[in-house]
Design brief:
This protein has 2 helices and 13 strands. The termini are far apart.
Length: 303
């Protein structure tokens, strides 16, 4: 202080007999700081899903509590079938309607309901053109993805129903996602005229064993990515195309042929053409059966 010498520039007294403030000071002079707030500095976050922002717990401005330093949560987006929570509600790949991101469908009609059939064999949200992925949140319907196989009937049904807003299967006669019924699967394969014997883009009642992924395809003998065989599809005009109904992987249906036994349709890459017809319904499996050549496809029923 100039000619008067030194003086101490201490702040306002912060001593407390029992420490209660959060201020980074040892108010009760016991060698510990902010001991009533033991989680100070711990990780924290604001928001859910892709909106989540991370930070740490810090003292509030008034020193009476902890607050998270994370930025405000981001803006919710549109949910798509990709294993992420874009709408920031804490759930993943839910409430996806037919045609929504990653769930391509074709609409067909039958007495009593409108049915939206997945355009492609079901795949996992993290599937790629060469790998089936590991995420089990919900079933997607996308081109150029390895199908979801080695799946039991219950797992396939759960993956379809996970697309509903509550993530559960709807009751009979209630709108929602579930495994396709065998008859609806067959209708999707036979086309709008109901005359196709195979799911071929043209001449669908003429034998063409190389059109789809079956055992006649030389050197293939393996599951292909969805839609790889461009002419292996049933054309539904403006509604779109349904791919791989005759080959690639067999598909579970919701049709129960005996207690705990369900119809499997479509044939697979290791089946002959005669076993890949739209009406071939010989193959069945118990609900705990799972095999590498067996997958599934989901339908949305609009009653």
């Amino acid at each position: 202080a100039g000619a008067t010498g030194w003086r101490c520039m201490y702040g306002a007294a912060a001593y407390q007999e029992v420490e209660s403030r959060c201020d980074g000071i040892d108010n009760d002079c016991d060698g510990m700081v902010d001991e009533p707030f033991p989680t100070r500095g711990a990780a924290c976050s604001n928001g859910l899903g892709l909106c989540q922002r991370s930070g740490t717990l810090r003292c509030s401005a008034d020193g009476t509590a902890l607050e998270c330093s994370a930025a405000m949560a981001g803006t919710p987006g549109t949910e798509t079938c990709d294993g992420r929570d874009e709408d920031c509600d804490g759930r993943t790949d839910e409430a996806l309607f037919p045609g929504a991101g990653g769930v391509s469908t074709v609409q067909i009609s039958r007495p009593g309901a409108t049915v939206h059939v997945m355009s492609y064999e079901a795949s996992r949200p993290d599937a790629t053109p060469t790998a089936a992925g590991t995420a089990n949140t919900a079933a997607c319907s996308r081109a150029n993805r390895m199908p979801w196989t080695t799946v039991t009937w219950d797992q396939a049904q759960a993956a379809c129903c996970a697309l509903n807003s509550g993530g559960v299967c709807p009751a009979a006669g209630v709108d929602g996602w579930r495994l396709c019924a065998g008859d609806d699967w067959q209708s999707a394969c036979e086309g709008s005229a109901g005359t196709c014997d195979w799911s071929y883009a043209s001449n669908c009642s003429t034998s063409q064993p190389m059109v789809c992924n079956g055992s006649e395809v030389a050197g293939a003998d393996a599951i292909a990515a969805t839609g790889s065989f461009a002419s292996c599809r049933t054309a539904w005009g403006a509604a779109g195309n349904v791919y791989d109904l005759s080959g690639n992987v067999k598909e579970w249906t919701s049709t129960q042929v005996a207690t705990g036994v369900y119809a499997i349709r479509g044939g697979a890459y290791n089946n002959l053409e005669a076993g890949r017809t739209c009406d071939f319904d010989f193959t069945v499996g118990s609900r705990d059966f799972a095999f590498p050549n067996t997958g599934f496809r989901c339908c949305f029923y609009d009653f």
